[in-house]
Amino acid sequence: MRLLLALMLPALFTCSPSAGLHTYTGRTMGTTFSVKIVLPAQPASPDPTQVNSAIDSLLLQVNQQMSTYIPDSELSRFNASSSTDWFAVS
Asked: What CA–CA distance (Å, rounded) separates 85 from 62?
């Protein structure tokens, strides 16, 4: 019985017909990125275009915080500050 369960268990997770690997690629921060996500085969599964938009939005936010090339990024403002006071970060 355990052997049968061990053989059948992987099949339960690999045979979903509409689940699939979605790959998102792009350029940001002077390099490229690739995100691979397996979306479940459920009606409530997120729309791949919404996932792509969320990834782009998150990377833009990180770039705005951490870029040394954007003059008003958090990191650039911190580096330009001559104050010894606490510096608020997001």
From this structure: 24
Compute the C-alpha angle 36/45/51, nearest 5°.
45
DSSP annotation of 84? -
Cβ contacts of 64 within 8 Å, gap of 6 or more: 70, 73, 74
pTM of the model: 0.63
Task: Round to whole Å and give the CA distance between 80 and 23.
Answer: 38
- pLDDT digit string (tens) for 59-81? 999 999 999 999 999 999 999 99
- Element spanning 79, H or E: helix 74-80
